[in-house]
Amino acid sequence: MTTFADLNLNVTNLSDNLIDKLVENAIKLGYNELGLSVDFEFPATVPRTKEQKKKDNKPQVIVPAPKSYKIPQKIANRLDTFSRKINIFSRINIKIKPSDINTYLHHLKSKEVLAFDIIALEPLDSQALLYLCNNNFNADIITIKSGIECGLTDKHLIRPLNNAVNSLSLHFELCYSPSISSSTERRDFIMAGRCLTFNTKSKGLLISSGASSSINLRGPYELLNLAKLFDITDQDSHQIVRRNSHQVLANSFCRKHTSSGMVYLNDSSDLIRLKTALLIYREKLNKEKV
Hints:
The structure is a single chain. The chain has helices spanning 16-29, 50-55, 73-81, 111-114, 126-134, 158-166, 177-181, 183-200, 220-227, 234-257, 268-289, and strands at 4-10, 31-41, 87-96, 118-123, 141-144, 171-175, 205-208. The chain is globular, with a radius of gyration of 21 Å. Strands 1-2-3-4-5-6-7 form a seven-stranded parallel beta sheet, sandwiched between helices. It is an alpha/beta fold.
């Protein structure tokens, strides 16, 4: 039975004490996999003269390092009594503007970005969303902050959305924390959820909190009821809340730790085991041919 996960706890400008409170409350609500997210935005492009282009004075892009976090000892002791294991993942949330398409997107494949466990891209309009759905940048999640600005109701986005889910193994994420305090955000959240469930057949959608305060956190069973607002079945709501997040973690693990998603070697002894397994398989094939 798969556990629940919240892959978007925003800790961009939080102190260590506030991060501890946020993680502790998420654990109390029943989440076993947590993603600590750091927001990042490329610098604004400024028109340059011919002399500046000759000097090649491009603005420097400094990507923040992954957030290293260790669960406090008090919480760890409490978890040991219940034999409960908590996994913490680092995540970067990169905002993509239309002006970034021809200038900064090559940085998405840099070592600094690939060092994160989860890579999330947040398009700010429909042009950026369309470009991200048709190109592979080794990302795991596309975060939809506003369904209206991203143009999810447009019919020309149906095929790119399906292409992103089926061909690029991307998942679309909706964050519920802004919709708690605003009726406008609430309507936009429901509209975006209905559009994405209809266009992707509930395969590539997940719900996260996007919260930077424990007040905006909700339990996983509340999210199961929330997903029913998208006019879907109970099976599809479990797919969105429970299973899709684990699929994201599996894809990110393959991207970061395996060779083309095929082979993962933990230590040198695994190589010997792989060799013996291949020899046994070869002998079995030879026997079948005879």
